[in-house]
């Protein structure tokens, strides 16, 4: 049983998880696995997005294609994305690639799609915002009841829905949109995340010998100039300490090292050092 074999047994520790963001530590492996996981999260997680748009009326300032593109990029919340009966777009029941179809002859195909409708007209003098609140879920599609399908636009803030277009007086937009299940590798609109990045866990070390050569005021001044998230000044002890929760972006920015060099001279550029945490094989973990 070798250390190399042990290093290939990855573990995941979730550090924080919110409604729109998750942060976790991947250990016991190397960057190739981390990058593979990142790519899989971007391109292999099924989501639902608007794929087909049929515009019946559009007298706004935006072209039909522009509105269709904006609708396609609207993030949709869906409880059906992982439903095995909700097939991926472009494939039939046998897994064969199929062309886009607007009208459906069977309930089986309609089960794979969600229909939205929009019919809005500005009858007032002031400009009007057309938002996701105007994108209504159709009650049925192809004879299939959609009332409890669980698909709707994301509501980041109910008071500020996503603006799709603006209408002047007597302008209108009327359309039908079909949402399908897909993967990020088919089109970016099906990607479940706006950004997924990884970096090596930092190990922060302070040079206490050189810190002792600085006065308390110099230490405090140095910390004041450094961006927050890496080190802090302890007022009780007068010492410099590493933050409990390190901001990785700040750790690898080199800003604290630059400040020390500029304020105290080149010999103090190593007051703090940041290196990737290494595993048992000596490689970054």
From TrEMBL:
Leader sequence residues: none
GO CC terms, sorted: RNA polymerase II, core complex
GO biological process, one term: transcription by RNA polymerase II
GO MF term list: DNA-directed RNA polymerase activity; protein dimerization activity
Domain DNA-directed RNA polymerase RpoA/D/Rpb3-type: 21-262
Keywords: DNA-directed RNA polymerase, Transcription
Alphabetized SUPFAM superfamilies for the sequence: Insert subdomain of RNA polymerase alpha subunit, RBP11-like subunits of RNA polymerase
Family the UniProt entry places it in: Belongs to the archaeal Rpo3/eukaryotic RPB3 RNA polymerase subunit family.
PANTHER family for the chain: DNA-DIRECTED RNA POLYMERASE, DNA-DIRECTED RNA POLYMERASE II SUBUNIT RPB3
Name of the protein in question: DNA-directed RNA polymerase RpoA/D/Rpb3-type domain-containing protein
Source organism: Cryptomonas curvata
Lineage: Eukaryota, Cryptophyceae, Cryptomonadales, Cryptomonadaceae, Cryptomonas
